[in-house]
Amino acid sequence: MYTYTFERLDVWQKSRTLVKAVYKLSKQFPKEEMFGLTNQVRRAAVSVSSNIAEGNSRFSKKDKARFIEIAYGSLMEILSQLIVAQDLEYIEQHNLDKIKPLIYEINNKLIALRKSLLN
């Protein structure tokens, strides 16, 4: 079976794990947030993996790096939105503390990937 190059990237694999974690965590949000914060944080989570994949399909290193930057922005958006969710008491602090190391790991991998493309 054929696999695309992005599927072999560890950072893309980790981003899939993040999507699952965000969906699971956002299930705890109130129903009235379905079209607000729930939708927004889920879209940002999917955006990370999507932009890694799309960037990997580009031919120039500059284009690839730009999509990694977009993925990084979405990752920071997720963290901010989950902090807001915790502030609003939609999730407990320990749940935020459990997902932060994964966000940190993806953060570091995206930075390293971008650097490798621009050198």
In summary, what is this structure?
Helix content is 76%, strand content 0%.
What does it look like?
The protein is mainly alpha-helical. The chain has one domain: de novo design (two linked rop proteins) (Up-down Bundle), CATH 1.20.1440. It is 76% helix and 0% strand. The protein has 4 helices and no strands. Helix 1 packs antiparallel against helix 2. The chain is elongated, with a radius of gyration of 15 Å.
Helix/strand layout:
Layout: H1 10-26, H2 37-56, H3 61-87, H4 93-118
Summarize this structure as a short list of keywords or feature phrases.
119 residues, elongated, de novo design (two linked rop proteins), mainly alpha
